[in-house]
Amino acid sequence: MSPVQHDTTKTGTAKTDTTPAGTAPADWRQWRAARAEALTAPWGPLSVTGTYWLDDYPDGLLPDIPGRWRAAGDHVSLTRGTGLLVRGRPYAGETPLAADTGPAGRAQVAHRRRRLAVLEREGAWAVRVHDPDAPARRAFPGLEVSPWAARWAIEGRFAPYESERTVRVPNADGRARGLVLRGELRFYVDGLAYALHAGVQPDGGLLAVFADATSGAGSHRFRFLFTPAPAPDGAVPVDFNRAVLPPCALSPHFLCPFPPPGNTLALAVAAGERRLARAGGE
Question: Residue 7: what pLDDT?
Fold first, then answer.
C-alpha cells in the first residue's frame, strides 16, 4: 500500500475546480489546496445535516425547518415560513421554488446561518439542509490522500457512444436512480488497457464513478474521477491523482450513484483521495 498524507486544511470558501488536470506536482498541490477549501467551506459538503424528501412528509412539515413545504409538479410550494429569507428578503405568504442549481451558499432559502437547498431527482423533491455549525464540519479529521505519482497521470481517450445510455444504479440513500452515460474513457496502465463508462458534465468535462482493487479496504468503497473536456480527437488527461471521495463519504445525507456495471477496475488505484483520516493514521 502506498503511503498516505493527511489533507486537513479547514478554511476558505467553496469553489468548483475546472482547471484541466495536470501532471506537475506543483499544479496538483494547488488543486489540493482548492479542494480542501471547498470541502470545509461554511456551506460545503461537510455542512449537510439532512436531506428530506417531501413525499415522506405529506403534511409538509420538515424536522426543525420552518414553513410548510409541498411538491407542486414542476416546483415546490413554500408557505408559512416564519423566520425564513427567500432570495434575500424576509418571507411572507406563499412562494414557488424551483430546484437550486448553484452552490449551496446561494440557495434561495435561508434560515439564520443555514441554507435550505431545494433538490429534484426524477420528479421527486427534497430539501437539503446546510449548517455551518454541523458536527461533521467542526470535527472533520481530514482525508488520507496518496502522494502525487507520475504513474497515475495518464493520457486517455474518450470514445462517445452513438447515443447516450441511462442505467439504473443504486444510490447511497438506498434508492436506485438513472445514471446517464455518454461514452467510454479509455486508458492504459502498465501496458494494459482499461475503460470506464463516463458521463458528461455541463462544462463538457467527464465524470466516471469507479471502484478498484483498493475499494472497501485501502480506500472508500467507490470514488469519483473528473476530467476536463476532451479534445476534438477525444484525447483527455486521466489523472487518478485527482480521484476524489464522493460526497456521501463525508455526510450520510448525500445520494451519490454507485459505480455502474463495468466500472470496477481489476487494478489497485493507490492514488488520490482514499478515505477519511483515522485517529493515529494507518
Answer: 52
